[in-house]
Amino acid sequence: MIQDNQDIARTLEQAVSLYQSGDLLTAEDKLRSILAVDTHQPQANYYLGSLLLESLRTLDSLSYFNAALESDPQQAEYWLSYIGALIDAAHYEDAKLVLSYGRDAGLSGEPVEHLEQLLVKRQSEQLMLSSTNTHVPEAHIQEKLIQLFLKKRYQAAEIALHKLLEQYPSWLDGWKIMSDTLLVQKKDARVAARKALALNADDAKEHCYYGLVLKGQGDLANAADAFRDAIKLQPDYAAAYNNLGIVSKDMGDIAAAVGYYRQALDINPGYASCYSNLLFCLSHADVVSTEDLFAEHRRFGYQYEAVYKSAWPKHSHKSNSAKNLNVGFVSADFREHSLVNFFEPVLEHLSLVADVSLHAYSTSAIEDHVTQRLKPKFKHWHKVDELTDVALAEKIREDKIDILVDLDGHTAGNRLISFAMKPAPIQLSWLGYLATTGLSAMDYYLADAHLLPPNQFDGQFMEKIVQLPANAPFIPSDLSPEVNELPALNNGFITFGCFNRVEKITPSVISLWSKLLNKIPNSKLLLGSMPQDGSYDAIIKAFAEHTISVDRLIIYHRNTMADYLRLHHQVDICLDTFPSNGVTTTCHAAWMGVPTLCVEGNSLMSRGAMAIMLHLNLSDFVVQSHEGFVSQGVYWSEHLQHLSEVRSNLRKQFKISALNQASIISQHLVLAFRQMWERWCKNQPATSFKTSAIDS
Question: From CA 608, how far away is CA 510, in angstroms rounded?
Answer without folding.
Answer: 19
